[in-house]
């Protein structure tokens, strides 16, 4: 099958198009003919080798973390799906590879595609929708009336997190550029900070939760907008010991991750708030929870640009250069 593989860690030149063997289909797997896949910041981080401690993929490997497609084969133990089903998924972290014609995915990580979406729209959702759910529902337990700050509201994650937080009954603030103020308001943001004109930490106060996708100084400043007992949950900050335990990492790795997050955890403690790191997990069940909201139009996908499969490298470069105006960059397979 045709695929885009990482031949060596490093810059974009390490990604090549070529032929690779068709995937093997396990007893609990579905084989999906991919119709569309989307680009995530995680793809760049994996390719660059920034995630090797967490995700030690052996080169060469197929890149890509989101898909929508059609089931063409099912394993002997599969009960949820049949050949011909239209599905979407974020494969498990140990089984990535959506920039390809085919992928085998465990049935537990797959869900039927929302009927109201095109393949391209559906492919834009799994990773960011699952991340939003796991931050806002599983980790933060958002309740109606709570105040949530979503950074980078016009990005792939931000556009979905704003909408989910509103469905949970939260008051939602977000940060964005001047060009996207109207977009994030249409998505449901109650308060919008144009980061080109204002410093968010000077105008937002007493928030219950911050969803951080930027890290660095933005993460540190986010502590100042929380009320006592509030929490910042980051997908871009330093990993912590709790995440290392989730991974089943050895004591050395646990210690290293604890050290990496020491500064931000100490700063959070001094302010009476908490910091945690989240790396999202694949879940077909959670995609099924989200599907009624998607089909009802309460959560809608935001797609910036669609590239043909042959231009996957260009799509990766486009996204990495920050050229997307809003939402996700998608690759169409056929």
Automatic annotation (TrEMBL):
CDD domains: MDR_like_2. It holds the Pfam family ADH_zinc_N_2. InterPro entries: ADH-like_N, ER, GroES-like_sf, NAD(P)-bd_dom_sf, Quin_OxRdtase/zeta-crystal_CS, YIM1/Zinc_Alcohol_DH_Fams. GO terms for molecular function: oxidoreductase activity; zinc ion binding. Signal peptide: none annotated. Keywords: Oxidoreductase. This is NADP-dependent oxidoreductase. It comes from Streptomyces sp. SID12501.
């Amino acid at each position: 099958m045709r695929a885009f593989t990482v031949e060596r860690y490093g810059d974009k030149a390490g990604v090549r198009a070529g032929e690779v063997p068709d995937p093997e289909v396990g007893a609990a797997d579905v084989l999906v003919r991919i119709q569309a896949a989307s680009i995530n910041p995680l793809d760049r981080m994996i390719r660059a080798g920034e995630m090797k401690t967490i995700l030690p993929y052996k080169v060469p490997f197929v890149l890509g973390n989101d898909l929508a497609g059609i089931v063409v084969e099912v394993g002997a133990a599969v009960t949820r799906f049949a050949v011909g089903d239209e599905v979407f998924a974020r494969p498990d972290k140990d089984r990535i590879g959506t920039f390809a014609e085919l992928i085998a995915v465990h049935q537990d990580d797959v869900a039927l595609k929302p009927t109201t979406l095109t393949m391209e729209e559906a492919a834009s959702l799994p990773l960011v929708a699952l991340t939003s759910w796991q931050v806002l529902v599983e980790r933060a337990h958002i309740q109606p009336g709570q105040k949530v700050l979503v950074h980078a509201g016009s990005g792939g994650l931000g556009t979905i997190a704003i909408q989910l937080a509103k469905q949970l009954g939260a008051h939602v603030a977000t940060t964005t550029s001047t060009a996207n103020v109207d977009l994030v308001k249409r998505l449901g943001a109650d308060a919008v900070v144009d980061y080109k004109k204002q410093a968010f930490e000077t105008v937002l106060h007493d928030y219950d939760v911050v969803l951080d996708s930027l890290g660095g100084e933005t993460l540190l400043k986010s502590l100042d907008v929380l009320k006592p007992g509030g929490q910042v949950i980051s997908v871009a900050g330093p990993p912590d010991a709790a995440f290392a335990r989730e991974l089943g990492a050895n004591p050395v790795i646990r210690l290293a991750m604890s050290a990496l997050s020491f500064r931000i955890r100490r700063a959070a403690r001094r302010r009476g708030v908490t910091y945690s790191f989240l790396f999202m997990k694949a879940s077909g069940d959670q995609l099924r929870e989200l599907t009624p909201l998607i089909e009802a139009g309460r959560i809608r996908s935001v797609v910036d640009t669609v590239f043909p499969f042959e231009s996957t490298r260009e799509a990766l470069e486009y996204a990495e250069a920050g050229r997307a105006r809003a939402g996700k960059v998608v690759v169409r397979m056929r």
